[in-house]
Amino acid sequence: MRFPLPLVIFSILLIFFPLDSFSRRTPFFEILIRSLPISDGGEDIGGEDVGSSSTDAYCNSWMYSVETNNIGTWATIPIICQSFVEDYMNGPRYLSDSKVVASYSLAFAKDVFIGGGKDAWIFDADETLISNLQYYAENGYGSEIFNETKWNEWVVLSAATALPASLELYNDLKSLGFKIMILTGRGEGQRELTQKNLNNAGYSGWEKLILRGEGDGGKTAVMYKSEKRAMLESEGYTIHGSSGDQWSDLSGSPTAKRSFKLPNPMYYIA
Amino acid sequence: MRFPLPLVIFSILLIFFPLDSFSRRTPFFEILIRSLPISDGGEDIGGEDVGSSSTDAYCNSWMYSVETNNIGTWATIPIICQSFVEDYMNGPRYLSDSKVVASYSLAFAKDVFIGGGKDAWIFDADETLISNLQYYAENGYGSEIFNETKWNEWVVLSAATALPASLELYNDLKSLGFKIMILTGRGEGQRELTQKNLNNAGYSGWEKLILRGEGDGGKTAVMYKSEKRAMLESEGYTIHGSSGDQWSDLSGSPTAKRSFKLPNPMYYIA
Q1: Which residues of A100-130 are buried (b: 16+ CB within 10 A; e: fewer)?
Q2: Of B166, B162, B182, whose CA–CA distance to B99 is shortest?
Q3: Which residue, of A267, B113, B119, B203, is most buried by count of CB atoms within 10 Å of its CB?
Q4: Does the keyword field hold Glycoprotein (chains A, B) (predicted)?
Q5: Which positions of chain A have pLDDT values less than 50?
Q6: Distance between CA A77 and CA A83 in Å, rounded?
Q7: Helices A53-67 and A28-35 sit at what angle, rounded to 10 degrees?
Q8: So what's the architecture of A98-261 in CATH?
Q9: pLDDT for B147-171, tens place per residue?
Q10: Nearest CB to A101: which of B65, B104, B258?
Q11: Of B32, B65, B103, the CB nearest to A32
């Protein structure tokens, strides 16, 4: 098996500089926080003042930069934004944002000419079709470094729930005649659990459920997902739409004709 | 001169289906509005009720989809969101969102190794370096179809003001040693006026000011701007960063190493 040189270099670098060290190495959010009018003194950051309007203003703008992919790689949310993220995820705005994305997705889909059985729509799984909010609620809403052991224990429960706007869109697209491809960063080892969870959440009738195989181990999500889109195209599918909560679900070549970014202020996948 | 076939087909289609007809032809926002809990009855949409919390909720989510490029081509803002856009553009959130984008841009820029005089940063002009808010305030904040005559009269005034976070970033990047490229969709015919306006707003010392030339007439912004990035690379420049308020400022091949999307809920350029 051959590995591209940049990947080898990147992997070696990761040994010495694991991703989670970035947040420790670079006083990134500190720079930002100091540069922004979050507080007058400083002692009113955190605790009961987290919900103050200046913190909310900052966290709103931070989320703007998360969603527009301005931040680049990040490991955890700014600690002062934990309450903001909690409120967003549990409040009406997450539902409303997701619903509007689904509306635009469906409006586009209805104009697609369907024929020949090769019209595909790709969905990511986590935070796109199913919500792991319960897991993140128990683990700081993205303020804690990703813990693979805890995450795998959660996956075993198959307890992620459907995102309501996505379930409706999924069924509408199926009715329109799209072949649904679920393309997830989860590994083949979790295929049965993922199927079970998707079924539990109300999803059925997909064309393919694609998980990371043995050869996909070292790849970034962008590389892995781009390769799978290329594979689908080589099998004759036209990828009309792609829905994901991460830019790495959507970007890279080839892209779908239209890509739809769902909100997720809790975590980032490169 | 040769034109690629898709462009020719697109141009012919435009004769019969001008862009602004989309908003008339497709009851797009109507579909959305009906699908969302904006009002209980219907008679409370518009007028003094525009500022109601359900309209704001919808317009917030609409703006989420604008900024994440989920909407695709659009000609005007939803009329019920005019007050929302007015409040956003004139309020603290626009400043705060822009400031956070600039902070992330500068944090990235500070980690770039500068040497050899070919380290470039690209800025778009309108709604990136300079603000045409006065023009849009007088023309419905994006609720009216673009009027080229009125726009050109505004350009003659050279009265667009600096976006404060962008002016600071611009000067910081210049100090760091970046060569600043201003890449605008304005035409060569407006070169003098654009220079004058940029100077009036406090900008100086750019490396190149690139405007649409004669050969760029029929090109989309993505095509035109991608070609200019390719040209800069062929001249030996490394494009580290690119800042723009439109996705068409940033996407297309080649891209900058990092792209930064500034907010603009008022208009869309393909």
Answers
A1: bbbbbbbbbbeebebeeeebbbbbbbbbbbb
A2: B166
A3: B203
A4: yes
A5: 1, 15-51
A6: 11
A7: 130
A8: 3-Layer(aba) Sandwich (3.40)
A9: 999 999 999 999 999 999 999 999 9
A10: B65
A11: B103
Q: CB contact, 8 Å: A88 with chain B?
A: no
B246 touches chain A (CB under 8 A): no
Cα distance between residue A121 and residue A113, in whole Å: 13
A22 at the B interface (CB within 8 A)?
Answer: no
Instruction: Count CB neighbours of A174 within 10 A.
Output: 17
Q: What's the confidence (pLDDT) of residue B12?
A: 58
If you search the block for the tokens 């926080």, which residue do you land on? A33
The answer to whether B91 touches B51, Cβ cutoff 8 Å, is: no
- Surface-to-core class of residue B6, CB atoms within 10 Å of its CB (0-12 exposed, 13-18 middle, 19+ buried): exposed
CA distance A38 to chain B (A): 10
Crossing angle, helix B28-35 and helix A92-110, to 10 degrees? 140
Contacts of B33 (CB under 8 A, 6+ apart): B45, B58, B78, B80
Q: Where are the domains of chain A?
A: 13-89, 98-261
Domain B90-261 has CATH 3.40.50.1000: yes
ipTM: 0.83
Partner residue facing B57 (CB), from A96, A103, A107? A96
